């Protein structure tokens, strides 16, 4: 009988590059930047790492396929390196690989590193990706804001929410994240914005305006993991351990069966339910100290509050506008500024989110430090609302 | 007496109507003579329409809900076929999910393709059995030419057969073939080259058409005054009226050539005008159709009592009534690729089509055929090995399920200004079909001011993507708001 991942693996160290339009950096530079911080934090030697996972999502504009780029960038000692890709959950997939390897006893110390270099396309927004030979014959030319805008239409349809009211709640999501990001020196966008500015921004994909979109940037983040026992033996006092790692992948029923109304993310609900079980969480709104969710667009964050059980169905608009998820609210969301301010170097984002939870739990978050956070949740949603990959991870202080 | 003829008919004129005044405004500086053509509007294809897609729409209108298995041939007449070497009529047949044991034929290379092709199809009926005849034209002209103002885009379709169902009996046809070159378009040349109008009128129409018509009337033994409707497609003003006089036809028999509302749809125009005439005709009317081009065809039909029940759901008349004004001349030029327009780097991705994939998925992609689970009854698109119903999941349980004619409703949508589109913003979203099935799909012909969730849509065969580098185009089906533009209902 499977017992889950709870408390079996500790985070020994983490690192995160400066995110942004890194015109100065090759992807290898970003990898090294995140890795050196991570290695220092872990307090081990590079040769202590026995296996590594690299997450990158768009090989065509990035480092290309396979685990080779990471092995070369870090001059790893001919250890196994596996490249993973699973849409926007890629970073979390790298973490899963490393954590499962340690939990299985296959290795003592493993590295997860996510990196994405997006800003070499010559245009704004995410790079245009190929979608497979058959899909390209009948899928619309969906942009990321275009598919996530569908959620707004679905939400309006399901809950009868007024278009303007929804747009205001979406704007609040972005205003809140910008306020948080302004306090984070590693964020890409470090400026607060006003509600008016968000509401008046040019439309990208109705009703998603420019400020409803997360940034597009370059970045890397890394984690070194081992067992809690090993972390202790290496001299760590405050140990942060993994409480849950769950993933749910659409099987096409949302895209092809009329039982889904388009107002929520089915996979997030499934992954969250399993993650709460795995972590032993009964009342997430009360028990979670903070969340870093996949705010690729403001509407995504808004409906994710319901999918994670932090808002009742149909109540997210009200909760958001009431400030429940603000920095001083009941369950702060995107305390580091989120994808909104970090941008979304796809392969790195999942690990960047875990980095913030880890940083907060260890009390290292400086100006944006929350009061005594114990349990943090990260969430990724990759693909399209109707066909996607959702991951939910929970990390927290290691008790015992 | 012949019992062959037309058993059903339909038409399609694209929704967009370019206002001629906009063309004249933009070009009169270079050719002041254009000012005389500023009145009215011309039909224009949306960016995703061409002679094949319009042919499919006209054919669907013609066929309605009737069983299509009896059709043994598809003839497609056009001088603007998208493929020089790929059976264009074959694409139409595939899109209509006609049987594979069928003859397909493209008729081209003259403005007479519509009428000559129709005569050939009618002559072949006895041997081949019921045939679908479609004429379609997506006209392309150099900027600032009279042709640009006078031409239109459109298609019409006729189902040909014999017996009691004939709504318009074919009384006979006659052709004179004379190499009179009023205009031509050479191979590898984009646009027509025309000679002087007065010469075309006096030496061409006024001398050649009478030969064809007189021969036909003599053959059929019909007196000129017995003709109820006289169809002579031409952009030359007063020529049909003049010819009616010469031929001693009744003045009121002259059929309006739709110059004010549609423009001349080239090789399709005789058939477009014939379909419109059939839509309006009562029983017992004699309709004389001519087609001019390096000679002249003349065909004579007589409507029967079946005419009333043969009228299509939309027809040419319905299409004309559903037009939407287009005031943007630059858009017209861009759609027709007669200007070089930048649509951003997102459009630069390779658009190669894997022909083996297209072939494997031809029913799905070209015919819009989904699956219906024999175990649970769930309709789904695309058809898949495992049933999509979460409560079923049966393996290999699905039968082919044609969905092109199933009405749908918009569940979610957006207007996407970021993604590559030849007419941004790109509208797409989730469509749910009556009786089950759904698809994230492109919309077309959307009026952004009134469109919303809950809007009723029907599927139309359209171009999904052009691969201009290789001269290929991908076709698929898109959701188009019903009744032109019906405002969505919030639910």
Which characteristics define this entry?
heterodimer; A: 400 residues; alpha/beta; 9-stranded mixed beta sheet; two-stranded antiparallel ribbon; 14 helices; B: 491 residues; alpha+beta; 5-stranded antiparallel beta sheet; 13 helices; 25% helix; disordered C terminus
What does this structure look like?
- Chain A has 400 residues and is α/β, with parallel strands linked by helices.
- Chain A has 14 helices and eleven strands.
- Chain A has a nine-stranded mixed sheet, with helices on both faces.
- In chain A, helix 1 packs across helix 2 (68-74), helix 3 packs across helix 14 and helix 5 (163-181) packs across helix 11 (298-307).
- The longest helix of chain B has 24 residues, at 197-220.
- In chain B, helix 6 runs parallel beside helix 7 (239-247).
- Chain B is 25% helix and 27% strand.
- The termini of chain B are far apart.
- Residues 484-491 of chain B have low confidence and may be disordered.
- Chain B has 491 residues and is of the alpha+beta class.
- The chains are: A alpha/beta (400), B alpha+beta (491).
- Chains A and B meet through helix 4, strand 5 and helix 8 of A and strand 18, strand 19 and strand 20 of B.
What's the short story on this structure?
With 400 residues, chain A is α/β, with parallel strands linked by helices. Chain A is built from 14 helices and eleven strands. The longest helix of chain A has 19 residues, at 163-181.
Multimeric state: heterodimer
Tell me roughly what share of residues is in helical segments of chain B.
25-40%
Low-confidence stretches of chain A: none
Determine the most extensive contact between two protein chains.
Answer: A-B, 45 and 54 residues
Unreliable residue runs of chain B: 484-491
Helical residue percent band of chain A: 25-40%
Radius of gyration of chain B, in Å, reads: 23 Å
Helix count of chain A equals: 14
Main sheet summary of chain B: 9 strands, mixed
Instruction: Tell how many strands the DSSP assignment of chain B holds.
Output: 22
């Amino acid at each position: 009988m499977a017992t889950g991942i709870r408390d079996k693996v500790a985070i020994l160290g983490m690192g995160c590059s400066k995110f942004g339009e890194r015109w100065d950096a090759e992807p290898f530079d970003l990898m090294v930047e995140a890795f050196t911080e991570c290695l220092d934090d872990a307090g081990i030697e590079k040769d202590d790492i026995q296996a590594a996972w690299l997450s990158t999502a768009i090989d065509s504009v990035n480092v290309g396929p396979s685990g080779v780029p990471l092995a070369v960038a870090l001059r790893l000692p001919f250890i196994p390196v596996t490249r993973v890709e699973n849409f926007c959950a890629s970073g979390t997939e790298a973490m899963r690989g490393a954590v499962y390897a340690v939990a299985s006893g296959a290795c003592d110390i493993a590295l997860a590193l996510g990196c994405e270099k997006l800003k070499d396309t010559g245009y704004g927004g995410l790079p245009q990706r190929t979608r497979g030979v058959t899909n390209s014959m009948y899928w619309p030319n969906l942009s990321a804001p275009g598919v996530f805008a569908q959620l707004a239409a679905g939400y309006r349809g399901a809950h009868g929410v007024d278009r303007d009211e929804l747009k205001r709640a979406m704007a609040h999501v972005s205003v809140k994240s910008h306020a948080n990001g302004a306090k984070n020196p590693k964020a890409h966008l470090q400026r607060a914005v006003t509600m008016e500015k968000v509401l008046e921004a040019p439309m990208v994909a109705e009703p998603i305006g420019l400020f409803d979109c997360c940034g597009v940037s370059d970045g890397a983040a890394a984690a070194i993991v081992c067992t809690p026992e090993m972390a202790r033996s290496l001299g760590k006092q405050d140990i942060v351990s993994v409480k849950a790692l769950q993933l749910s992948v659409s099987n096409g029923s949302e895209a092809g069966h009329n039982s889904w109304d388009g107002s929520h993310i089915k996979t997030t609900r499934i992954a969250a339910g399993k993650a709460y079980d795995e972590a032993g969480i009964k009342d997430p709104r009360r028990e979670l100290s903070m969340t870093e969710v996949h705010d690729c667009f403001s509407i995504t964050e808004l409906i994710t509050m319901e999918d994670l059980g932090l808002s009742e169905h149909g109540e997210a608009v009200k909760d958001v506008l009431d400030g429940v998820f603000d920095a001083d609210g009941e369950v702060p969301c995107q305390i580091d500024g989120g994808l909104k301010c970090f941008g979304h170097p796809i392969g790195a984002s999942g690990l960047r989110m875990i980095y913030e939870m880890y940083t907060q739990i260890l009390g290292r978050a400086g100006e944006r430090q929350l009061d005594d956070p114990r349990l943090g949740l990260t969430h990724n949603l990759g693909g399209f609302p109707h066909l996607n990959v959702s991951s939910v991870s929970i990390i927290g202080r290691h008790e015992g | 007496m012949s019992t062959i003829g037309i058993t059903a008919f339909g038409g399609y004129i694209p929704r967009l109507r370019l206002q001629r005044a906009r063309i004249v405004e933009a070009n009169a500086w270079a050719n002041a003579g254009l000012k005389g053509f500023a009145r009215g509007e011309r039909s224009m294809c949306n960016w995703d329409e061409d002679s094949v897609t319009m042919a499919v729409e006209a054919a669907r209108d013609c066929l309605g809900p009737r069983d299509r298995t009896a059709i043994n041939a598809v003839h497609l007449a056009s001088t603007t076929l998208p493929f020089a070497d790929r059976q264009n009529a074959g694409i139409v047949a595939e899109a209509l999910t006609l049987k594979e044991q069928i003859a397909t034929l493209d008729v081209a290379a003259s403005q007479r393709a519509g009428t000559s092709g129709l005569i050939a199809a009618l002559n072949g009926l006895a041997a081949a059995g019921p045939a679908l005849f479609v004429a379609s034209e997506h006209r392309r002209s150099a900027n600032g030419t009279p042709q640009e103002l006078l031409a239109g885009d459109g298609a019409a379709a006729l189902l040909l057969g014999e017996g009691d169902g004939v709504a318009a009996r074919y009384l006979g046809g006659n052709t004179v073939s004379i190499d009179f070159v009023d205009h031509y378009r050479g191979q590898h040349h984009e646009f027509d080259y025309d000679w002087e109008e007065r010469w075309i009128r006096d030496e061409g129409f006024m001398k050649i058409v009478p030969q064809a018509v007189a021969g036909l009337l003599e053959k059929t033994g019909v007196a000129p005054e017995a003709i109820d409707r006289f169809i002579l497609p031409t952009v030359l003003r007063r020529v049909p009226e003049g010819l009616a006089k010469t031929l001693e036809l009744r003045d009121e028999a002259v059929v309006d050539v739709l110059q004010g509302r549609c423009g001349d749809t080239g090789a399709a125009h005789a058939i477009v005008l014939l379909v419109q005439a059939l839509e309006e005709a009562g029983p017992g009317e004699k309709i004389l159709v001519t087609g001019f081009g390096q000679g002249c065809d003349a065909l004579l039909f007589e409507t029967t009592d079946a005419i009333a029940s043969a009228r299509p759901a939309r027809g040419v008349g319905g299409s004309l009534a559903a037009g939407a004004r287009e005031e943007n001349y630059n858009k017209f030029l861009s759609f027709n690729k007669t200007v070089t327009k930048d649509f951003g780097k997102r459009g630069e991705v390779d658009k190669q089509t894997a022909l083996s994939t297209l072939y494997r998925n031809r029913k799905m992609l070209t015919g819009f055929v989904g699956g219906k689970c024999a175990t649970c009854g769930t309709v789904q698109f695309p058809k898949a090995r495992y049933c999509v119903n979460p409560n079923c999941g049966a393996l290999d349980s699905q039968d082919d399920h044609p969905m092109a004619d199933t009405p749908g409703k918009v569940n979610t949508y957006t207007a996407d200004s970021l993604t590559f589109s030849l007419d941004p913003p790109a509208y797409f979203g989730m469509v749910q079909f009556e009786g089950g099935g759904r698809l994230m799909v492109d919309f077309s012909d959307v009026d952004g001011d009134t469109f919303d969730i809950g809007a009723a849509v029907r599927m139309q065969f359209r171009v999904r993507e052009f691969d201009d580098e290789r001269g290929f185009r991908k076709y698929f089906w898109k959701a188009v708001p019903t009744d032109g533009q019906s405002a969505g209902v919030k639910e």
